[in-house]
């Protein structure tokens, strides 16, 4: 075996292929040293003489009458090193058996290099431990340079093999994951990919399987790391560990579907791709990292570097920080994309993810300065998302105000903007607590929309609700949006030339708004009972106005006044009244059967209220005056409807389907 030494060092010593083989040097030593043992309790004369001449302690070599084994050499080295601890001299003469120990270690390394003794890692670790201790000792003393070089060379070779072993053991996580392409561990559990909706409970099951090393492997990693650190090879050990675990994290992120993207790449991505694929993957990855991978990584590093907690903390911090920064870069890129109302809820999902991760990160990073630094970065990221949320809500208001279309919605139906706004607010209600938090944190940020109606304009309108809004920035925001929507609908209602259709439109949209608010627990809490009662009162007013504008003339035609002159019915006036009723009812039916009420309850309420007013009046009028008309063609000409017909035709109103004129049906 070649010894890597400088040309000026001692010539290489032949390693012992077998401890039982004879060594020329050993035989020579045995012959020259085969002297009678010193007198019991006395001191060897030569040693005593040497001590007398030099003034140094001389440590006796062990008897070498038999070949020295590595195990025996370990014992002798332990004794020698222990003796050195008790000596105060700056220089101690190295015992003769030291050379033999170094020969044996070199032989062990050579065998290890050839692959013969790789199963016996423990003996190599023991040898390395003593070599490291010896190296520290000779560095503090005035020992010959060749000896120091030889010890250093042996230590370097040994550490090289330990480093390689450490790397191979660290790579064993790949065997656990690559053996099952589906991402299942040996127990059949699905480790990597978890359904997003079950992310809260999934970590408890898979956490036990990450990072996937056996107890035996972790024990070996701990032993090797301990020897490398003790021998001064901390940097090499940490480098191997960090490289392997970074690769492991990259594999884990890839299996979770998360890819590395620069901030610029995220900004340029299509929103549809971001919202449907990239953001859900990011959320799942961040949650899994905080719940599974980071805790598992913390346990692993704490076990491998159990004797060096500061070192373990530093490795864990650097490793996880790199992953967190990668995740936060994606967040920043998303927050910097062009503002749009439809992006709000995905940004809130990301906001909640970061918010919920922060406490978990505090638990994992016990070191105060590291925890504070990471917490600051996470809070800054959360703040950027909050600012984007505030900005999007401002844009949402502007979208309502910017719609200046002059075309009324056909049939007084619920306006598309009404549906959009209410669905948007109801979905916002699902994020009520989060939005409340966002608006409170950013309550001092000036709104970009300087034309937004100040909250003070609505003071006094809602009573206690205004006080509630003042205490709740999100409630104030919602009420501001509702005020904008009301103003918007007022302007759209004025586009109708028919006053009854105007009332119908406001009633229809108002009912939709109220039902949406009542249908959401969160939004009902935000708006409050007073607002709901006030809105119900407004709807009743619109209902009454519609009835008056539409059916008042119909009822006027059924009045009995002025039909009797001198006790006799004025037939021409009676005929005119029947003709007026028929024409009005026919026109209302023709027109309002195409009006749209999608709310089944409102549709039924309208039909019932119309029937309750019209049918009794018509039945009474018909019962009193039908016999006045001559039977036959005259009756058929003026009396077109029976009460049952009126009821059936009323039931055709507001279904959004234009019906043929009643008169044409009868011809």
TrEMBL record:
This is Exocyst subunit Exo70 family protein. It holds the Pfam family Exo70_N. Component of the exocyst complex. The gene is LOC107494714. Transmembrane segments: none annotated. Keywords: Exocytosis, Protein transport, Transport. Belongs to the EXO70 family. Residues 1-12, 22-32, 181-193, 444-456 have a biased composition (Basic and acidic residues). GO terms for molecular function: phosphatidylinositol-4,5-bisphosphate binding. The keyword Endoplasmic reticulum does not apply. Residues 1-74, 176-212, 444-471 are annotated as: Disordered.
């Amino acid at each position: 075996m070649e010894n890597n030494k400088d040309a000026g060092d001692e010539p290489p010593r032949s390693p012992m292929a077998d401890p039982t083989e004879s060594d020329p040097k050993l035989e020579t030593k045995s012959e020259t040293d085969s002297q009678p043992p010193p007198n019991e309790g006395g001191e060897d004369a030569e040693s005593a003489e040497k001590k007398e001449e030099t003034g140094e302690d001389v440590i006796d070599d062990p008897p070498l009458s038999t070949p020295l084994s590595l195990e025996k050499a370990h014992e002798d080295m332990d004794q020698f090193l222990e003796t050195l601890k008790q000596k105060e001299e700056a220089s101690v003469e190295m015992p003769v058996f030291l050379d033999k120990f170094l020969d044996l270690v070199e032989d062990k390394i050579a065998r290890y290099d050839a692959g013969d003794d790789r199963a016996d890692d423990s003996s190599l670790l023991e040898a390395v431990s003593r070599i490291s201790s010896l190296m520290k000792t000779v560095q503090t003393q005035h020992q010959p340079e060749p000896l120091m070089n030889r010890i250093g060379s042996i230590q370097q070779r040994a550490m090289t093999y330990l480093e390689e072993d450490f790397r191979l053991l660290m790579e064993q996580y790949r065997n656990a994951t690559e053996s099952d392409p589906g991402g299942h561990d040996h127990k059949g559990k699905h480790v990597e990919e978890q359904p997003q909706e079950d992310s809260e409970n999934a970590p408890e099951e898979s956490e036990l399987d990450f990072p996937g090393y056996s107890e035996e492997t972790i024990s070996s990693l701990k032993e090797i790391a301990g020897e490398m650190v003790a021998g001064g090879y901390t940097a090499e050990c940490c480098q191997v560990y960090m490289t392997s675990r970074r690769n492991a994290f990259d594999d884990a992120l890839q299996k979770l579907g998360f890819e590395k993207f620069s901030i610029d790449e995220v900004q340029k991505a299509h929103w549809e791709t971001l919202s449907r694929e990239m953001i859900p993957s990011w959320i799942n990855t961040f949650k899994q990292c905080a719940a599974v991978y980071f805790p598992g990584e913390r346990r692993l590093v704490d076990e491998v570097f159990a004797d060096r907690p500061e070192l373990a903390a530093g490795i864990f911090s650097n490793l996880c920080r790199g992953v967190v920064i990668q995740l936060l870069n994606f967040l920043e890129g998303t927050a910097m994309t062009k503002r749009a109302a439809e992006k709000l809820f995905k940004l809130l999902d990301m906001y909640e993810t970061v918010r919920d991760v922060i406490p978990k990160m505090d638990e994992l990073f016990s070191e105060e300065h590291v925890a504070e630094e990471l917490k600051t970065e996470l809070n800054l990221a959360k703040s950027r998302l909050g600012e984007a949320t505030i900005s999007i809500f401002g844009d949402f208001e502007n979208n309502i105000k910017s719609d200046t279309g002059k075309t009324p919605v056909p049939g007084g139906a619920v306006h598309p903007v009404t549906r959009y706004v209410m669905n948007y607010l109801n979905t916002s209600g699902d994020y009520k607590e989060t939005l409340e938090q966002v608006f409170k944190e950013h309550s001092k940020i000036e709104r970009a929309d300087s034309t937004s109606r100040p909250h003070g304009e609505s003071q006094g309108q809602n009573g206690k609700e205004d006080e509630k809004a003042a205490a709740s920035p999100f409630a104030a925001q919602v009420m501001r949006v509702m005020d904008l929507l009301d103003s918007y609908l007022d302007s759209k209602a004025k586009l109708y030339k028919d006053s009854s259709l105007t009332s119908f439109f406001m009633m229809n949209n108002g009912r939709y708004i109220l039902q949406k608010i009542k249908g959401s627990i969160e939004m009902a809490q935000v708006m409050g009972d007073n607002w709901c009662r006030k809105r119900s009162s407004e709807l009743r007013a619109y209902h009454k106005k519609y009835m008056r504008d539409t059916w008042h003339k119909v009822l006027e035609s059924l009045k009995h006044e002025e039909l009797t002159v001198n006790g006799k019915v004025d037939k021409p006036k009676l005929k005119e009244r029947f003709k007026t009723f028929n024409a009005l009812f026919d026109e209302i039916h023709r027109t309002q059967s195409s009006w749209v009420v999608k709310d089944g309850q409102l549709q039924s309420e309208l039909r019932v209220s119309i029937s309750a007013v019209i049918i009794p009046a018509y039945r009474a009028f018909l019962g009193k005056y039908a016999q006045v008309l001559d039977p036959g063609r005259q009756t058929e000409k003026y009396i077109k409807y029976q009460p049952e017909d009126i009821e059936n035709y009323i039931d055709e109103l507001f279904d959004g389907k234009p019906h043929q004129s009643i008169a044409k049906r009868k011809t």
